[in-house]
Amino acid sequence: MARAVSTRRMAVATIAAWIVALIIFFPILYTIITSLKSEPEAIQGFNLIPSFTLESYVTVQTQRDYFKPFMNSVVLSVGSTLLALLVAVPAAWSMAFSPTNRTKDILMWMLSTKMMPAVAVLVPIYLIFRDTGLLDTRLGLTIMLTLINLPIVVWMLYTYFREIPGEILEAARMDGATLWGEIVYVLAPMAVPGIASTMLLNIILAWNEAFWTIRLTTTNAAPLTAFIASFSSPQGLFWAKLSAASTLAIAPILIMGWFSQKQLVRGLTFGAVK
Amino acid sequence: MNVRTLLLGTCSAALLCGYANAETLTIATVNNGDMIRMQGLTEDFTTKNPDIQLEWVTLEENVLRERVTTDIATKGGQYDIMTIGTYEVPIWAKQGWLLPLDNLGADYDVDDLLPAIRSGLTGDDGKLYAAPFYGESSMVMYRKDLMEKAGLTMPDAPTWEFIADAARKMTNRDEGINGICLRGKAGWGENMAFLTATSNAFGARWFDENWKPQFDQPEWKNTLDFYIKLMNDAGPQGASSNGFNENLALFQQGKCGMWIDATVAASFVSNPAESTVADKVGYALAPDTGLGKRGNWLWAWNLAIPAGTQKAEAAEKFIAWATGKDYLKLVADKEGWANVPPGTRTSLYENAEYQKAAPFAKMTLDSINAADPKNPTVKPVPYVGVQFVAIPEFQGLGTTVGQLFSAALAGQMSVDDALAQAQQVSEREMTRAGYIK
């Protein structure tokens, strides 16, 4: 039975939630505000009311082509997510439903690769990409982003799959389901919220990845992270232009996140109440 | 098939072949005003050279430096032309990473390049390894009205003593006026560019002839003591976070009496569209202490060809266009003489129209000529470079020492502690790198 909550308590909780949300969202909001200022105004200090000039957006549009890096970002984030799921779903299935003594160790080892600083392997990876002709290609970067995010994808899916009773899969097997059928027709539909949220999170991670996407590309495969990086200037004011470029770069992913927030929250809290 | 179809087909095939034969040059560059302007004017080049196409990769300075270093060290071949600084050119040329620019053309007039800039880009074999796109030194930019109010007159070649006295007299914290704005943000190209150049005027040096670090010598203590006391008395709040852009904004808003920084800043502070004090700015040489060296640096952004490129001939053609005399005229015709990239050619400073459009021209030239990268210090040194030491280890070491000095400015450690730690890390790094046996 649900506990009765007083109106006052509810109001306090709502205000607290709004404050927390505002604090989290504030850097993005301030980026948008700064993008609507003139350059001298942007560097003058903290100011929440811009002059609402669009000159930075005009400059950004005239200086660089937005469409090509945008398309690269879409291809790289969606491509790497699909590829990661293709590998991670069977991997997480085997770890969740046929664990061995070493499963926990493998999971920990996979996670430990995320703890290594990326710059430590920059030169070896660069040489591999150079020798295989993958430098500045969408394919090369898709593979790279898949590998970077794979540990997180496997971990998330593993956690969701563990919440699904193994007996259901056993029943499917008793009814003659093949391994592929078991994963596609029984496991996947039950884990849709988990898979969807993993997918969304992975798209966001791949969209925002800046270290490798800047270092392994030049012109053909450079995504929006490289587009943003091109507006930082060592001599001359650039805050408003940089903010305008950032706003343009994060807008698609922000809109996608907004529309899919229900799915995202559902997936992230999947299995929290059992 | 009629004649018209045949003609159309032939033309299309010719166009396709032309496109297929076109070489694409990939150029890595930084996002500076002059570079962006060049990108907008490349139609002039591609019209004259229809078989060459251009692709630009613009990155933040530090990312660009790291990115092109990785590519050139691994011979990745991703770039055909790189924008690199005066610091990299001698080091990379020595490593065999850059191609010499032997075929810039008969009308390029290499002797017109400013001698100080050219010498920094010339290898031990006497060949030019990069062509300067724009060059700069450092100088004093000051508010004429505030100087007058303080009852002082700025000499053309001031001493540090005069600058410090003027800064303290110009400071009016109630009105938000700081007597002087200087770099404090940590980094080998930020506070250490300024402090290394300043230390030259105080008789200090990074290393003696045997590569032994010199931070334990009185000259460095004098430099750092002087700088920190001056900044505490007359500098802006939070100066340890201020680099070029932050000081530029402060000066443009009328919050600095003086600013000692890159000569290229003169065009920003004197531009009425950006600066509230555009008509009140005067210029003077960087100060000295009477020991024979001025605290002014020398820097140029240059175009160079990495050894890994397959398109060296086309790349050299582009460099000859971008750094040639005709390019300066092209910019002048399209955007006015004040917007011409400065600090590379003698002929520019002899041009009456340029002198008229850029009141800071003479001081820029004098500042560049006053810098001597091969003899930067009062005492002899084994290295080249005014505001840096042209060895590969300097990037890391310069930034570490810059962090210590920035912490001293912020009051987080004493000058003595900062110098002692700088000496310790420098000795360790130089021993590890094999300079100290």
Automatic annotation (TrEMBL), chain A:
Gene3D superfamilies: MetI-like. Keywords: Cell membrane, Membrane, Transmembrane, Transmembrane helix, Transport. The keyword Hydrolase does not apply. Its main location: membrane. Pfam families: BPD_transp_1 (PF00528). It is found in: Cell membrane. It comes from the Bacteria. It is a multi-pass membrane protein. Residues 70-260 form the ABC transmembrane type-1 domain. InterPro entries: BP-dep_ABC_trans_perm, MetI-like, MetI-like_sf. The chain crosses the membrane at residues 12-33, 74-94, 106-129, 141-161, 182-207, 238-259. The keyword Cell membrane applies. Belongs to the binding-protein-dependent transport system permease family. This is Carbohydrate ABC transporter permease. It comes from Shinella pollutisoli. The lineage of its organism: Bacteria, Pseudomonadati, Pseudomonadota, Alphaproteobacteria, Hyphomicrobiales.
Automatic annotation (TrEMBL), chain B:
InterPro entries: Bact_solute-bd_prot1, SBP. Keywords: Periplasm, Signal. Residues 1-22 form the signal peptide. Pfam families: SBP_bac_1. It is found in: Periplasm. It comes from the Bacteria. The keyword Signal applies. Belongs to the bacterial solute-binding protein 1 family. This is ABC transporter substrate-binding protein. It comes from Shinella pollutisoli.
